[in-house]
Design brief:
single chain, alpha+beta, Phosphorylase Kinase, domain 1, Transferase(Phosphotransferase), domain 1, 2 domains, 3-stranded antiparallel β-sheet, 10 helices, 35% helix
């Protein structure tokens, strides 16, 4: 597309693009202003209708709050769809996490959560749920010595005041039960808080909880088992994460249960969660610091 290439130049590809099901992502630069942006390009085929709709859907989410992406342009032709979004510098949360010393992680995590809290509060006012909270969609950057947090990729986001009848699509391992079971009528801010709890657990433990190589078994574990304890978590954090990622533990496969029983179980689990991230942050901040025991030679005291 000559008009687009006259305005922008491609700098590099972004992310893991082994699976191009949802198109290719590029870092681009405006030839006139020098401003960087993100371009998502998807070729139209008969087999990727869902991906096309997802990309066009993402274009409808545009924000003017720092840390949230703005839509710059959506270009549709007979052969492709191109979405241009604002660029947010930074590295994925998990990559940043492993770059800092263990004794500094709690303080940095609190700062990251405070940045996310402002973003979550803004989304709540707009009745928007991200539905794809995971480390790769949370970017961390230092700007003039200040830690800056951004939340990107609204391809799965939804507005709670609109009817949502899309087919099930969720990040395996991070998704709340109401997303796994495609009860989009129940989804609200607590759905994103659930996923954030799993993100925090994974940061400390180094892997996702309740994993299994078989996707069906993996999904079943997400619905039927509580968040496991990990000796890698700071003392007291497990109880907070259990509340942040609270869920009803189904005793049998939900597809074998009565719809009303499934609905009641899902609501029960959601009602046990924190309703605001700020409350979790204050309780996390209040956890006792790990004591450091000093050994003294006999006779010194």
């Amino acid at each position: 597309m000559s008009e687009l290439s006259n305005k922008y130049k491609i700098l590099s590809k972004l992310g893991n693009q082994v699976n191009s099901k949802f198109g290719e992502v590029f870092l681009i630069e405006n030839r006139i202003t020098g401003a960087k942006a993100v371009m998502k390009a998807l070729m139209r085929t008969g087999s990727n209708q869902a991906a096309q709709e997802r990309l066009k859907h993402e274009a409808t989410f545009s924000f003017d709050l720092p840390g949230l992406p703005a839509t710059i342009d959506l270009i549709e032709t007979k052969n492709e769809i191109i979405l241009i979004k604002s660029f947010h510098p930074g590295i994925p949360l998990d990559e940043f996490w492993f770059s800092i010393a263990k004794n500094e992680r709690k303080e940095y995590l609190l700062k990251i959560l405070e940045g996310l809290c402002k973003i979550f509060e803004h989304l709540a006012k707009l009745n928007i749920v991200h539905c794809d909270i995971k480390p790769g969609n949370i970017l961390v950057d230092f700007k003039s010595g200040t830690l800056v947090v951004s939340l990107i990729d609204f391809g799965l986001a939804l507005r709670t005041f609109e009817p949502n009848k899309r087919s099930t699509l969720f990040p395996l391992g991070f998704a709340a039960p109401e997303l796994i079971l495609n009860r989009l009528d129940l989804v609200d801010q607590r759905t994103d808080l659930y996923a954030l709890g799993i993100v925090i657990w994974r940061l400390y433990d180094g892997k996702l909880p309740l994993t299994h190589p078989n996707p069906s078994v993996f999904t079943n574990l997400q619905l039927t088992h509580p968040l496991p304890e990990s000796d890698k978590l700071p003392k007291g954090l497990h109880n907070l994460l259990q509340k942040l990622s609270a869920k009803h533990q189904f005793k049998t496969a939900p597809n074998l249960m009565d719809n009303q029983a499934v609905l009641a179980g899902l609501k029960e689990g959601m009602d046990q969660r924190y309703s605001e991230l700020s409350v979790f942050i204050e309780e996390f901040r209040s956890l006792p610091k790990r004591q450091k025991w000093l050994l003294f030679n006999k006779g010194l005291f």
